[in-house]
From TrEMBL:
It is a peripheral membrane protein. F-type ATPases have 2 components, CF(1) - the catalytic core - and CF(0) - the membrane proton channel. CF(1) has five subunits: alpha(3), beta(3), gamma(1), delta(1), epsilon(1). CF(0) has three main subunits: a, b and c. Belongs to the ATPase gamma chain family. NCBIfam families: ATPsyn_F1gamma, PRK05621.1-4. This is ATP synthase gamma chain. Coiled coil: none annotated. Signal peptide: none annotated. Pfam families: ATP-synt (PF00231). It is found in: Cell membrane; Membrane. SUPFAM superfamilies: ATP synthase (F1-ATPase), gamma subunit (SSF52943). It comes from Acetobacter suratthaniensis.
Length: 295
């Protein structure tokens, strides 16, 4: 049985840990409000961008000279996966869920005879995939989580992906990230960026006469060549915002659980401490009484 001194030290240590986790929970909650507002504000813009480009793409289907960001390279051999994670831990299974989905996708594609390339975003993704899949990594980006995410980060990442597509090094590109739902739930999601997936509409979704008609100047292909790189950056930026919101939500939940667990541990150790102290007092009284009787 641990001594009273050891129990006091353990209780004091856990109390200090509880203060830290409680503070981290409050910091994450404050960051979550801003990150959630940014992610929710970006969703309509990203969805409208995809819808508009889908309609533009429908006007140039079957024509020559279509940009590769729209149609791809015409092959399906080399896939680039871009897992988005945080730079720091202490956020529960947030990063592990992205790792798991990415590994499952890698194994599925390789079993189909496809070549896989990785472009991890976030220190956690880089560290994880460097252990078992270092030969698949073509580039990486770190230092973008835990702070306000500027659009230049998504712009730079989009330019890297665009260069790989235009050079013919990859045929398909997909993002793997946690889509934010609420502080307690982030859903691992895979979103294909290249070639552009046009959203299919049901027969009764939109009347035929209500579909927007566009007049293009100078022409559809030129406009697509300008808008497709921008759309790539917008979709990446929206995913980065979802990741930031999910990270703060997962960290707030994890630190709340840690704070609760610390409280339960303190209560349990306090009971053990009081019982041990009472046992020691009882033993001392017995020794005193036994000595008095002996005299």
């Amino acid at each position: 049985m641990a001594s009273l001194k050891e129990l006091r030290a353990r209780i004091g240590s856990i109390k200090s840990t509880r203060k830290i986790t409680s503070a981290m929970k409050m910091v994450a909650a404050a960051k979550l409000r801003r990150a959630q507002a940014s992610a929710e504000a970006a969703r309509p813009y990203a969805a409208a961008m995809r819808r508009m480009l889908g309609e533009l793409a429908g006007a140039v289907q079957g024509e020559g000279g279509v940009p590769r960001l729209l149609s791809g390279t015409g092959q399906d051999k080399v896939h680039l996966l871009v897992p988005l994670t945080s730079d720091r831990g202490l956020c529960g299974g947030f990063n592990s869920n992205v790792h798991r989905l990415t590994v499952q996708t890698i194994r599925r594609l390789q079993s189909e005879g496809k070549t896989v390339r990785l472009l991890p975003v976030g220190r956690r993704a880089l560290n994880f995939f460097s252990r078992d899949y270092a030969d698949l990594i073509v580039d990486h980006v770190i230092g973008v989580s835990g702070k306000e995410i500027p659009f230049s980060v998504a712009s730079g990442l989009g330019e890297k992906i665009n260069a790989l597509v235009e050079s013919g090094e990859i045929d398909v590109c997909s993002l793997v990230f946690n889509k934010f739902h609420n502080a307690m739930m982030q859903v691992p999601t895979s979103q294909q960026l290249v070639p552009l997936l046009m959203e299919e509409q049901g027969a009764g979704d939109v009347p035929a006469d209500s579909v927007a008609q566009y007049e293009f100047e100078p022409d559809e292909a030129t406009i697509l060549a300008m808008l497709l790189p921008r759309n790539l950056q917008v979709q990446i930026y929206a995913a980065l915002l979802e990741t930031a919101a999910g990270e703060n939500g997962a960290r707030m939940t994890a630190m709340d659980n840690a704070t609760r667990n610390a409280g339960r541990s303190i209560d349990s150790l306090t009971q053990v401490y009081n019982r041990t102290r009472q046992t020691n007092i009882t033993n001392e009284l017995i020794e005193i009484i036994s000595g008095a009787q002996a005299v």
